[in-house]
UniProtKB/TrEMBL annotation:
It holds the Pfam family Ank. One of its GO terms (molecular function) is transcription cis-regulatory region binding. One of its GO terms (cellular component) is nucleus. Keywords: ANK repeat, Repeat. InterPro entries: Ankyrin-SOCS_Box, Ankyrin_rpt, Ankyrin_rpt-contain_sf, SOCS_box, SOCS_box-like_dom_sf. This is Ankyrin repeat and SOCS box protein 4. Pathway: Protein modification; protein ubiquitination. The gene is ASB4.
Length: 425
């Protein structure tokens, strides 16, 4: 008899809980009020809610997760009301003293409000005592979750209410909100954080500055497209006096990251701001070597401009006996090969050169490669070329700034700056 009563009570509770969840989903705050007042439903009842995008959930790095995609998360009524933007239900729950900082699945309601960029919910939660700098289970503070253009107003509200603008994630990345804004490409947030006291050269766990993060993420690796907003952020950070020659844990500078992306816009920007063209990473590689490594896998890039810029700002040339590696990387881009070849007074062709160029590429660009092999034979290069080299040696790393100031015809200035012509002589 007792067992029957217990099972009946349990079934009733399940039905009431399901009915309450439907009220929350439909923003039926009057029905919700009825459950809380008349049926004495616990205001902090935890529901199972559909959540394929894990808006409600946060998991610690290293925790085991099933191989299939999770479709549901645990959440209180507060979390659900915030996720759905149901202000009326939210106010009813807070009126009944719902626990405002609970984390049934790793996030507080404030984290969820930031995730869905609902500034009205954020204001209400903060008015009722939500913690500004609390962390999710994965170590993110509310500011770190303001990671879209839509959440700019949310981040502003948090900072105005006292959120720590330099708070680092409580995980192995140790990223500040400025790193997040730079990585996600949100110029307005970058400017706001800095104006509110964010450290421009703050470091994450990998010793990367926000400038280094923005430089790396300026290329969408999936579709190989360059991001104008990341370029704008880099310009902003440099204007705010970010250190252009900062080094991460592998001694890579922001220039290395721009070179890895074959991003001539950022290379130009950073070199103008004093980036060291010959700075070496932990393996002794300079930015020009990075460009060579990725030329063949950056279809949207203009590598010849990257080589021009680096050489005109004093980058060391590739060791002549290793020139065949330039051909291996750049054979399908004759302009890039031309720029690098013209940086030498003379470089002698070897059997490795021919082996480095696929036969179909050689046929396609035969006119150019024929001129390359002739110019790089045992005979010296033209007197005009040798004069160019003499001027460039004299100006060294000042080529890019000094040559445009010379009283010479524009075409000759382009020649001195290694502008490709499609043929070598």
């Amino acid at each position: 008899m007792e067992e029957t009563r217990h099972s009946t009570r349990t079934a009733d509770e399940i039905l009431m809980k399901e009915a309450c969840l439907q009220a929350l989903k439909s923003n039926d705050f009057e029905k919700l009020q009825e459950f809380l007042v008349e049926k004495k439903l616990d205001v902090d009842t935890v529901f199972e809610m559909e959540d394929q995008n894990l808006v409600l959930a946060s998991y610690k790095q290293g925790y085991w997760l099933p191989s299939y995609k999770l479709k549901c998360s645990w959440a209180t009524g507060l979390h659900i009301s915030v996720m759905l933007g149901h202000i009326e239900c939210l106010l009813v729950l807070l009126e009944h003293q719902a626990t405002i900082n609970c984390r049934p699945n790793g996030k507080t309601p404030l984290h969820v409000a930031c995730e869905v960029a609902n500034v009205e919910c954020i204001k209400i939660l903060l008015d009722h005592g939500a913690k500004l700098n609390c962390f999710t289970l994965s170590g993110h503070a509310p500011l770190h979750l303001c990671a879209s253009e839509e959440s700019v107003s949310c981040a502003k509200e948090l900072v105005w209410r006292g959120a720590n603008v330099n708070i680092q994630t409580n995980n192995e990345i140790e990223e500040t909100p400025l790193h997040t804004a730079a990585r996600m490409g949100i110029p307005e947030l970058v400017a706001f954080y800095i104006n509110q006291g964010a450290v421009v050269d703050s470091l994450n766990a990998h010793m990367e500055t926000p400038l280094a993060c923005a430089s790396y993420w300026a290329l969408n690796q999936k579709d190989q497209k360059y991001s104008t907003v990341h370029h704008i952020i880099c310009r902003m950070l440099l204007d705010y006096k970010a250190e252009v020659n900062s080094r991460d844990e592998d001694f890579k500078s922001p220039l290395h990251k721009a070179a890895w992306n074959c991003d001539h816009t950022l290379l130009h920007m950073m070199l103008e701001e004093g980036a060291e063209a010959n700075i070496m990473d932990v393996n002794g590689c300079t930015p020009i070597q990075y460009v060579i490594k990725v030329t063949s896998v950056r279809p949207a890039a203009q590598p010849e401009i990257c080589y021009q810029l680096l050489l005109n700002y004093g980058a060391a040339r590739i060791y002549p006996p290793q020139f065949h590696k330039v051909l291996e990387a750049c054979h399908s881009n004759p302009k890039a090969v031309e720029v690098i070849a013209n940086a030498y007074e003379h470089v002698k062709a070897t059997s490795k050169w021919t082996a480095a160029i696929p036969e179909d590429v050689l046929k396609r660009y035969w006119k150019f490669y024929e001129s390359l092999f002739i110019a790089c034979s045992n005979s010296p290069r033209s007197l005009m070329h040798l004069a160019r080299c003499a001027v460039r040696v004299t100006l060294s790393r000042r080529c890019h700034q000094a040559i445009p100031l010379l009283l010479l015809p524009p075409q000759l200035k382009k020649y001195l700056l290694l502008e490709p012509e499609g043929i070598i002589y």
